[in-house]
Amino acid sequence: MTFEDQLKALIFFHLEEHTSAQHLLQVLEEDDFASDVIAPEEGIKKSSFGEAINSRGLEQLAPIYQNLQSEAVGPLAKEHNELGDLIGIDGSLIDAVIAIMEIAKVCPQTADVLQAGNFGAIQQIAFLGNEFLKKEVLTKLLRGETIITPAMSEPNAGSAVTDLRTTARFDGDEVVINGSKVFNSNGDHAGYFCVWCRFGKGVESSGAVIVPDTASGFSRGKVEQHMSGEHYVSLYFDDCRVPKEYVLMSEEGFKKLLQVFNVERLGNSSRSLALAELAYEKSLQYSKERIQFDRPICEFQGIQWKFVDMKMRLEQARWLLYKAVVEADRGLPTTLDSSLAKLSCNEAAEYVCREAIQIHGGYGVSQEFPLAYLYERARGWMIAGGSVEMLRNRIASEILERRFSQRPPRPPKA
Ligand SMILES: Cc1cc2nc3c(=O)[nH]c(=O)nc-3n(C[C@H](O)[C@H](O)[C@H](O)COP(=O)(O)OP(=O)(O)OC[C@H]3O[C@@H](n4cnc5c(N)ncnc54)[C@H](O)[C@@H]3O)c2cc1C
């Protein structure tokens, strides 16, 4: 039994229920779209996830690993259709986390597909969606037919997401959306977008609408790339119309959306940690093979201490992630757990990938080796889905049990 399987056995022993997207599909199919999206846990015997992943032959992904910077997620997902099946495997969130971590070590972009199929906007539909959205949209997503991406960020609303300006208004049986979004990851291939918008004035009027890419008045900008090659697009809504059944949350939805968004952080954390572990393993191997001054560089204390610090950060991050996942399997992760997990995984990943580059010397920054790519991706996740600064704000707020407004103080009333 692997370490992960032992951990899962331990975790499942204590669990009474779980909320995985995969299990949800089964529930939906068996119960004819039952309204209860949380099904009873059926136990560790249900799946050996390591076996499921290995039977699909991770090594077949190795060739595309060479070509990461120029490929997009959609075609990769289709090309490796068998891996798309993983989205349909029954399991829990810890299964999804382990799958994402194992696959990210071989092909980070395929892990992105699993991320989209298990965390983020898909969970928002699972937790908050009406019967129509579950039947029409969720099943397609869970079958891996297409992906959904979160569309929150706007040109003037990044960390300050409460400043979003995209509007939505009801017009008969439709909802009409106006505004724009930026930094939509993999939006060039997504079939649906979870568009955060305002239904009126004030933060409390914010909600979200699921917009299919076929909607009238919807368009996307040209494909752009982050430094690691990840694709993103801007989204435009010009009197964009969708039937009102596509409304995920109208007024008063903001807090609930944010609460479910905590799940997304677990997927971000898993991918960060996986890339860091890969960088660590590659560095260990390299340090045993690279000879300088007639000895392997792992024999230098300066290099050994790097491995100690890398290992320490990786283990700290791993356990905070597992804790958050275990809590999530009982419902939703708490803001504190998910923020601590993401902060530690993001920072461990940046640290470990940076040190991995150093250990590889000149080869670390060469495109011949994947270290620079791993660093660049890990670096981006320190900003995406809540920057490390904003996470610290959230954690401080949870610890002190107080909200601290980030806005300038209002002038005293005359
Ligand atoms: C790889 C990647 C993928 C992304 N994918 C998506 C996606 O799919 N969908 C989507 O909607 N968005 C996506 N984003 C956008 C992302 O959510 C935003 O970049 C993020 O919220 C930060 O917003 P910003 O870039 O506007 O930076 P800003 O909010 O302008 O922040 C600039 C700097 O100021 C800091 N800062 C801001 N406010 C505070 C504060 N109160 N206290 C301390 N520091 C503060 C920030 O931490 C940051 O360091 C993605 C971003 C990246 C990098």
Question: What brief labels describe this structure?
Answer:
414 residues, binds flavin-adenine dinucleotide, Butyryl-CoA Dehydrogenase, subunit A, domain 3, five-stranded antiparallel β-sheet, alpha+beta
What are the bound molecules? flavin-adenine dinucleotide
Number of helices: 15
Order of helices and strands: HEHEHHHHHHHHEEEEEEEEEHEEHHHH
Structural class: alpha+beta
Strand proportion? 15-25%
CATH homologous superfamily assignment of the largest domain = Butyryl-CoA Dehydrogenase, subunit A, domain 3
Low-pLDDT residue intervals, each spanning 5 or more residues: 1-90
Which architecture of the largest domain would the CATH scheme give at its second level?
Up-down Bundle
CATH topology of the largest domain, which one?
Butyryl-CoA Dehydrogenase, subunit A, domain 3
Number of strands: 13
Number of domains: 3
Evaluate the radius of gyration: 22 Å
- Mean pLDDT, to the nearest integer, reads 80
Q: Rough shape?
A: globular
CATH class descriptor of the largest domain: Mainly Alpha
The CA-CA distance between the termini, in Å, is: 70 Å
**Helicity level:** 40-55%
* Main beta-sheet annotation: 5 strands, antiparallel
What does this molecule look like?
Mean pLDDT is 80; it is low at 1-90. This protein has 15 helices and 13 strands. It is α+β, with helices and mostly antiparallel strands. Helix 13 (335-359) packs antiparallel against helix 15 (388-400). It folds into three domains: 3-128, no CATH class; 148-252, Butyryl-CoA Dehydrogenase, subunit A, domain 2, CATH 2.40.110; 255-400, Butyryl-CoA Dehydrogenase, subunit A, domain 3, CATH 1.20.140.10. The chain is globular, with a radius of gyration of 22 Å. A hairpin with a 2-residue loop joins strand 12 (291-292) and strand 13 (295-296). The strands form four sheets. Strands 4, 5, 8, 9 and 10 form a five-stranded antiparallel beta sheet that branches. Helices cover 49% and strands 16% of the residues. Flavin-adenine dinucleotide binds next to strand 3, strand 5 and helix 15.
